């Protein structure tokens, strides 16, 4: 089916130290980096900085979309979560990452989160491919003119009509 895309590869190392040595091979060339922590464990939020640093050793930060995801939201009280969310939002801002809170148990935000990751990575892939193929670059100005020959001339070579 041409409208069915395979799921993106995901590697879950569960923050375990024993995976640190092989994890870098999986990070290489990533389009999105999703760092997940337990919203009920302050230490897991602190570890996200190191996991991100490790992932960015293998990737150009300007070429990846970053996500910080708090999991197990269903296990915290609203008051506990509120405190953790403030800290998580600060960390996400430092990382320049998009922040999400999810619950695998209840399914809260899980589907929306994965759709968001897929949409942003697809968009960045399409834009990168357009740039590689020689199509117009992001930020180029598109000029609309009644004269078709003017449409394909670089802006620097065109003379304004007022000066002719």
From TrEMBL:
- SMART domains, per database record: RAB, RAS, RHO
List the Gene Ontology MF annotations in alphabetical order: GTP binding; GTPase activity
What residue ranges carry the coiled-coil annotation?
none
Q: Which UniProt keywords apply?
A: GTP-binding, Nucleotide-binding
| The keyword Nucleotide-binding appears for this protein | yes
Protein name (record): Ras-related protein Rab-34
């Amino acid at each position: 089916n041409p409208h069915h895309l395979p799921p993106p590869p995901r590697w879950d190392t569960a923050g375990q130290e024993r995976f640190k040595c092989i994890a870098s091979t999986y990070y290489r060339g990533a389009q999105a980096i999703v760092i997940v922590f337990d919203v009920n464990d302050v230490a897991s939020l602190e570890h996200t900085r190191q996991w991100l640093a490790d992932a960015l050793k293998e990737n150009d930060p300007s070429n990846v979309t970053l996500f910080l995801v708090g999991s197990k939201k269903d296990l915290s009280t609203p008051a506990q979560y509120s405190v953790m969310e403030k800290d998580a939002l600060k960390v996400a801002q430092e990382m320049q990452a998009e922040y999400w809170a999810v619950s695998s148990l209840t399914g809260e935000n899980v589907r929306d989160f994965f759709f968001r990751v897929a949409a942003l990575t697809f968009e960045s892939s399409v834009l990168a491919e357009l740039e590689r193929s020689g199509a117009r670059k992001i930020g180029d100005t598109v000029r609309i003119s009644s004269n078709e020959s003017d449409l394909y001339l670089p802006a620097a070579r065109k003379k304004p009509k007022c000066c002719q």
